[in-house]
Amino acid sequence: MKFDLLTILIAYLIVDVVFAIAFAVTARRHPNLGGPSWWLAACIVIFTGFLGLCLRGVIPDIVSIVIANSLVIAGGICIWVGIRSFFGLRWHWSLFALFILPAAALLSVFMIVWPSVSARQLSMSVLVIPIGVFIIRDILRQRSLALFMETNLLIGFIGAEALIHFIRIITIIITPTSTGSYILSTDQPDRVFLMLLFITSTARLLILITLVNARLQDELNQLATQDPLTQLPNRRLLLERLKHSIDVERRSGKQLALLMLDLDRFKSVNDSLGHGAGDELLQQVAGRIQNRLRDIDMVARLGGDEFIVLLEDIAHPEDAARVAEQIVTDLSRPFQLLRSNEVDHELGREVQIGASIGISLYPQHGNHPELLMEQADTAMYEAKQAGRGCFAYFSEEFTIAVRQRIDLEGRLRRAIEQQEFCVFYQPQIDIASGLIVGAEALVRWQSPSEGLIAPIKFISIAEETGLIIAIGEWVLRETCRQGQRWLAAGFLPITLAVNVSPQQFKRCDINALVAEVLAETGFPAGYLELEMTESGLMDNQDKAVEVFNNLRGQGIRLAIDDFGTGYSSLAYLKRFPVDVLKIDKSFIDDIPHLQDDMEITATIIAMGHTLGFKVLAEGVETQEQLSFLQQKGCDAYQGYLTSKPVSAEDFAGLLRAQQLK
Ligand code: C2E
Ligand code: MG
Ligand code: MG
């Protein structure tokens, strides 16, 4: 088969236009591509088109040339993608090692064995079909086709182009009389044409190299070890250095410290002054930390407002604390931000932040980088909890405590699902008559493995995790159900007091819940008392007053629990429609030995009465305490003196005994 020059050039033009469009599309989405590749793409199209116009002639079989050229490129892409997906390799390695060289060799063999175009087309198709299966697999694995385009097509193009180019050059060298193109077998070798062809294909190759190089640059950026904002090393470099340092210290028997640093209030700077100001702040923070360190130390930015400092070769563990303290002090000095979006740029904006630092030590807290990082992180959270602007060491006991808490949370969740709770009742005694007039409902966890667990072990975690809402709801329902059962059994009515956690108060509609439970159980509202601690009420006083008024409207009694341990302010007591003040056990404990406690107790009783509340003393264990309370006119008490909290069954026994008297 023979083709004239014009045919070949038009065929090239068609393929190049397609190429140019593909490049343009890819280049638009490519941040690392500059002008030259656009310029080259345009050159190819114009140059080939110009040539095509100059050399007029007949067009015998343009389609077959286009197909042949495209097939080679498609084949290149297929081979590349196939090899890559089959071996799961990083592309730049597999590109050179596995694709170009063997494929070039393979095609050179084909060319020698089958010199005609159609035979070569056939051989390419044989290659294309099986490898096409890999392409589809690869597309399916990729989340978007765009990603596939960017990575695989480019590599395929460069592979195929390099191949064609390589073969042409070889052909020119071997047979100086031919034009050097495997799809070109003209009888009149034309030196000018050969030159032009050589230039166009070189230009094409250059474009492809530019594109692939841009992708390489992308990958290199990703792999880079520097944080672009602060120019500090990033996590990757830090981990490498830490690993190396651990090896060195291991041999020398020295120690190192890792300081995990998190800025306090950074978010509010970012939110209020804008991200530009936030970035500037981070840069200044990086500078201050660096100034504080020795040359051998290293500070890295982990991202966000988290930094990490590696102190090598420290003599004593306290040295790390000293550095941490200095950094905390440095960072608590005001920062001047010029990029603030709120104020006059010339004046700048002064902001003050702080830092919390968690410290882990090698070898005391671990002997590999990830573990030390994790532990410094844990310690940092401890520092934050202990009040911002300080540091904390990681300690083994702390981790154990944290793990136990996580484990407890899981078990508590299961306990709720499997209803492992029960309610105990502690009698409340009217001091004047000595009769049981009420009971406080106190939850107990009946763990299948550990037996009866007291609330002190799980209430705080239930509150932190919000599980208290489910538990509290269950206790309320169960208590009302039990109260109704006692009424039905003919016991005289008594008040049943249920504890309400601040979380329940804040996060659910306690009014609706109470109404629902009372309706469901039939327990009279007037005998239900809800106990709340002062702290639970103080967060949102207006809402609390509203909720209290609504509960009161339903006929429910309200009690302030553990009174005296919180705010104990007269102002709020006046606002809340309260029925009972429960004096905290801690004031009762040292009666009659501590004069102060006796005075406080007497004052609370008098004050409660003045405000029209009933006063109940908690934790009464001795007759002396009871006599004192009686003398001061306290209305009621609960405590081990009469009874510990007991099961519903035992409590019914107490009621029965009282009624029989
Ligand atoms: P609280 O509401 O102040 O309950 C009184 C606690 O003091 C009870 O502990 C009770 O057993 C204990 N106590 C009573 N008299 C004496 C005494 O004479 N001596 C001593 N040493 N202790 C006495 P308990 O049952 O362990 O409950 C502890 C806390 O757990 C409760 O303190 C309450 O804040 C919370 N809690 C218990 N049940 C629930 C519940 O269902 N919901 C909520 N939110 N909290 C609950
Ligand atoms: Mg209570
Ligand atoms: Mg209490």
Task: Describe this structure as you would to a colleague.
Helices cover 59% and strands 15% of the residues. By secondary structure, the chain is of the alpha/beta class. The chain folds into 3 domains: 221 residues, Up-down Bundle (Rhopdopsin 7-helix transmembrane proteins); 170 residues, Reverse transcriptase/Diguanylate cyclase domain (Alpha-Beta Plaits, 2-Layer Sandwich); 175 residues, TIM Barrel, CATH 3.20.20.450. The chain has an 8-stranded mixed β-barrel with strand order 8-9-11-12-13-14-15-16, surrounded by 4 helices. Helix 20 links the parallel strand 13 and strand 14. Helix 3 packs across helix 4 and helix 15 runs parallel beside helix 17. The chain is elongated, with a radius of gyration of 41 Å. The termini are far apart. One magnesium ion binds next to strand 13.
CATH architectural arrangement of the largest domain: Up-down Bundle
Categorize the overall geometry: elongated
Strand order of the largest sheet: 8-9-11-12-13-14-15-16
CATH class annotation of the largest domain: Mainly Alpha
Q: State the major sheet.
A: 8 strands, mixed, barrel
